[in-house]
């Protein structure tokens, strides 16, 4: 039985036109680098944003914690500016899928490498309400360890009273999302091609499924129920 579905936000359920990673790229490149958006997505997608900066710099053999922290502080300022007039929408069919899962008594959890303030601003712009459209939000600032560690998933399980990770599925648009679900022991770790990583990049993390639209999740869940009834 599936009792909880954990969804990444940007690229999976939220469409913010990659503004966070574009801003991350800008903040880094203002320090005399020339990273491209595909490089930033490859190294940083899905990660807590300070860790993303560290990973992006490390891809060019640059390990400098002071520099990373300086870039991170600038990134937060730039992101606040970018959000002022940003149009944020849901990824196709997200609300529809959330409602379908709720009807199946499956809790809907949003999780993200953003801090809580950033995540809540995105959710507010879409118009989703906790307790109506989704059941729980967990962010990088709520836990001690971030992706690929399983802390955000186990935090949400504890909050919702779910104790068996085999009753949980994880859906995300990056390889680190998939590894997070695997490390949590989730029944399925599912990649989706609507965001940061390509089908080929997702496949490198060995997901249980790769989907192209959130609606493809419903027959996967139905097949689990059908197998349990036979």
From TrEMBL:
InterPro entries: HAD-like_hydrolase_sf (IPR050155), HAD-like_sf (IPR036412), HAD-SF_hydro_IA (IPR006439), HAD_2 (IPR041492), HAD_sf (IPR023214), PGP-like_dom2 (IPR023198). GO terms for molecular function: phosphoglycolate phosphatase activity; phosphonoacetaldehyde hydrolase activity. Its EC number is 3.11.1.1. GO terms for cellular component: cytosol. The keyword Hydrolase applies. Coiled coil: none annotated. This is Phosphonoacetaldehyde hydrolase. It comes from Dyadobacter helix. The lineage of its organism: Bacteria, Pseudomonadati, Bacteroidota, Cytophagia, Cytophagales.
